[in-house]
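tool_call: predict_structure(chain=1)
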Amino acid sequence: MHSLIQQLINRLPLDFRILCRQFLLRVIDLEALSIQADVVGFLGQFAGVLIMLSIVHATVSYVGFASISESEARQAFCLHMEHYLIATMMLVVGLFTVLSWDTTFPDRRDVMVLSPLPVAPHTILFAKVTASASVLGLAILTLNCASGVVVPFLVGVEHGTSWGFYQCLPAYWLTITAASAFLYCLVLTIQGLTALLFPRRIFLRLSAFLQLAAFGLFLGVYFLQPSLTTPAEMATAQNHWILEWSPSYWFFGLFNQMNGTLLPQLSWLAYRAWIGIGAALSGAVACLLLCYMRTMKKTIEEPDLVPGAHGLHWMPSFGDSLQTAIALFCIRSLTRSRQHRVAFAFYLAMVFAMALTWLQSELSTATPSALPTDFLMSTFIMMTFAVFGLRSVSALPISLTANWVLRTTQLRAPQQYISATRLSLLLFSVLPSWFISAALSLPFKPSRNVVAHLVLLALLGWILAEISLIGFYKVPFTCSYLPGKSNIQLVFWAFFLVCLPLAASIASIEHDVRNHPFKLANMAFLFGAVAYGLFVFNRSRARSAILYFEELPEEVITTLGLSV
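tool_result:
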C-alpha cells in the first residue's frame, strides 16, 4: 500500500511536489525560526494534542452513555454529543483557517521567489491548496481518530439495529468533512472578496480586523450558542432562529439525514447545509482563481507591514527611555505584525469567551448575588491565559532585522531590559485581564468581597508575570524561535492537571474565607509574599544574566565508548 501511494506521488510533476512540501512546512513563518528548527516535530506535537482531545471525547462519550439507563436520556445525550463534536470540529477548523490566514493566497515572498522561475501560477495555486488541505485533513483525522468511531457506535447502539454502526460511521465522517470544508471555504471566500474589492494597502489594514473579528466570532458562537439536546427543543418555534443562523446545527441536521433519524419538520436544516457547502465551495474556487490571475503582480508593490497613517502621533511614557522603547516596540509588534496579532488574539479570544459566558449568565440573573466559586475560578484562568499567552507570543520575533538592531545597540545592563520586559507583561496582559474581571465583578455583592478578590487577582497576575520571567533573558519579539524545543503535549496536560486544579483550589479557599477578614488578609499576605519573593529572585538572577537573541539546541557530545 505504501509503495502504491509512493508511486502515485512520484507521478505528480516535480515542481508541484517541491512547492507542496515547502508550503506544507510554511504553516510557521520561516523567517521567525531558528536555523535548527524542527518544523515537522512542531506540527507532530500539535497533532498529538488533537489526538489526546479525541481520546478524552471518546472516553467521556462512552462513560456518559453507559451511565444512563433511560432511553430518552440516552437519545438526548447522543444528540448533544453529535452537535458538540461537530461544533468543536468547526471551531478547530475556523481557528486553523484564521491562523493560516495568508498561506493560501499569494504573498510577497511567493512573487519575488517564484516569478523568475518557469512555474505557472496554477501550479502555485494547486500546491498551496493541497498543502492547506493536507494540514486540514490531518486536523480532522487526529481530532476524530477515537471519537469518530466511539460516537457512531453509541448512536448505532441507540438505534437498536446491528447495522446502525455501519450506517452512522460514514455519515459521521462525511458530515465532519463537509462541515470543515464549508467553514474553510467560507473564510477563504471572505478573504478573497476583500482582496479583490479593495486595494492591497487597504486590504492589509482591513485584514487585521477581519482576523480578530473571526477569532471573536468563532469562539463567541462556540461558547454562547445554546445547546438544544432534545427533538422537542429543536422543534420549538422560539428556537427556530437559533437553528436558522447556526451552521453547526445545519450539519447536525445533515448527519441525521444521512443517518435516517432526522425529523421531517427539521429537514430544512440539511437543505441549508447542502446549499452552504455549494455556495462556500463555489465562492472559494472563484476567489482563488481571480486572486491568482489579478493580484499576484500587485503583492510585491507594498510591504506586509502597513505604514502608519500620516499626522500627529503621540505615545505615552511607560517609565524611563528604555522601558518606554520596549513597551512601544511590544505595542507595535502586536498591532502591526499579523503573525503576532493572530497568535495573541487566540489567547485573548479565550479570555473574552469566558468573559462573555459570565456576562450572559449575569444578564439572565435579575438580582445580584455573592461571588460564586465558578466565577472566581474563571477569573484566575483568564489571568493565566493572558499572562502566559503574551509570554509565549513574546518568544516569536517580529523580524530578524529587529533581532540584529537590538543586539548591536545593547548599551545598558541586562537587568534593565528584563525590568522593561516585566513592565510590558504587567501592562499588556495582567492589566487588561484585571480590568475585564473588575467589570464583570460589579454586579456581585457585597462590595468588600469583590474588592478583596480583585486584590488577590492582581497579586496572582504579579506572580504569573514573575514566573514567566524565570529564564526569559531576552527582549520580547526579538529572539528567533526554535519549534520542537517545547513539549506541547506536556504543556497541554500541565494546564489541565496543574493549572485547572490549582485555580479551582484557590477559588475554593477564597470562597470559604471570604466572610473572615483575618483569613482573607492572611491569604492576600501570602500571595504578596510569594510575588515579592519571585521578584527578588528574578532581580538577583538578572544581575548576572546574559541576553540572547538566538534559540539554539543544547550541544550533545557523542562518544564511541572506547577506552585506551
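agent: The first helix runs from residue 2 to 10. Proceeding to next step.
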